[in-house]
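Now read these lines:
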Amino acid sequence: MLVLTRKLGEGILIGKEITVTIISVEGDKIRVGIEAPQNIRVIRQELLAEIGYENRMAAKSEYIPLEF
């Protein structure tokens, strides 16, 4: 893992198309701005874990066909 120190307003470039900028620092919280092309999915890590859990639970659920 690459670890960098950045100040407020500074950023980093990932590849040629993704920019990460430090927007604000308040106590132990840091607001980060991410500029990326629309085809690049940006999602918080904790949400990705939650989505994975929900998908696993849905896969375990019993299939009940609907009758019309």
The chain has a mean pLDDT of 88. Residues 21 and 35 are 8 Å apart (CA to CA). Residues 45-60 form the longest helix (16 residues).
